[in-house]
Amino acid sequence: MISVFDPLHLGSVALDIMTCGRTSFESRQKSRLDILLSTAVRDSPFYRERMSGDSSIHPLLSDFPIVSRSELMAQFDDWVTDPLLKLDQLRAFTSDPQKIGMPYLGKYLVWESSGTSNEPGIFVQDAQSLAVYDALEALRRNAPRPYQRWFDPLMLSERIAFVGAISGHFSSIVTMRRLRQVNPLMAQRLRCFSILQSPAALLEELNAYAPTVIATYPTVAALLADEFSLGSLKFKPAEIWTGGETLTDTVRRHVEQTLGCDVRNNYGASEFMLIGWECSHGKMHANADWLILEPIDERGNPVPPGQPSNSTLLTNLANHVQPLIRYDLGDQVRVLSECCACGSLLPIIEVQGRRDDSLVMRGCNGQAVTLLPLALTTVLEDDAAVFCFQLLQHDESTLVLRLEARGQDGKLMAQRCQKALDNFSVTQGLPLIRLIVKLGQTLSKGRSGKAKKIVALNKSEQH
Ligand SMILES: [Zn+2]
Questions:
Q1: Domains recognised in the chain with CATH numbers
Q2: Rounded distance from Cα 345 to ligand 1 centre (Å)
């Protein structure tokens, strides 16, 4: 099978990434930005129209409008720079689970995002942007056990487990599938595990494989640490890589102390695979040679360094197929002006991303059953096709479903949610979840809808 992979380009990008970081990144950022902005104005009808009043040869980033996902998705066919890319055909492609990680039109990789209030975003990558993500993943991800990596750079002595939502075309699972195609040796060392199964079934699978490295979400890492304390997890991994949700200090300490392993956190999104990585001094560095982050306040004005932001704009310098310019990510990022003792000149950032809770419910036999927030949101989005909701825990067997929709629309949505949660309850070993439905609710959310969607019983007073 062919893969979207360009080894020559990867080689040159890797060399560049190795030399940047200890030297200034600004000149690289500037020249890549110039190329991106002129490509967008030339080849994207959406940007050609938006920037028609600007006759300068090199438009400035600040002249470009702030854009949201829903706005870009609504004009998808005009936004992309390849006229062969059509949203309805891409939606048909991503609705087929058999095609996860397969090339699209022979030269693109496609993934969709989940977990926001609108319909999923579709993101298209070519070999050039993938080479950047590959090289950043390989070279910037700081290894907790450097000597081990020195002797085994391809990690062939490791057993790596990815634990996440593996049923859709999500960036993580698409990337894993592609890695397995590109590198058959790695395929034998890399397995994917679904969080939609019950924790008991997941633990059984993980115990049989006993991975040395686990890549997963902070809430899953916390669950694994809990299960180790209870004796249900029978092994200790050497490393846990987390991403996708906010990793709090408490959860990190809990995982590190209970499992005795190293935890490395990173910050990524469907819009850019590895926005930030954690160095040996525990600081998160932004890959500012390949992206630009602009923290903004409620009105879209820039926030000075060191101040917390309301949201953050992303400009992706690697992807010219689908230009992401001043794109509202919805995450709160603080950019620090201080230098890091590790020697990297890439800026230090602090991120407040998603902070959904795990819910502890009462199982059929009275046992405690943990429902992972990512599993609950995936079930409601994929099975019930409901994207704008909030689930609050009422007690150990009851949840409150808050929907913005009202009337007949709201009732039908609530019925789909009830059905999806009924099916999910059975797979998790729970009695059917009792659902209290509240329609016509105002759901507080950031500009990109990353407000808390799953709220545990003891956390509700905070929201
Ligand atoms: Zn550092």
A1: 7-352 (3.40.50.12780), 359-462 (3.30.300)
A2: 8
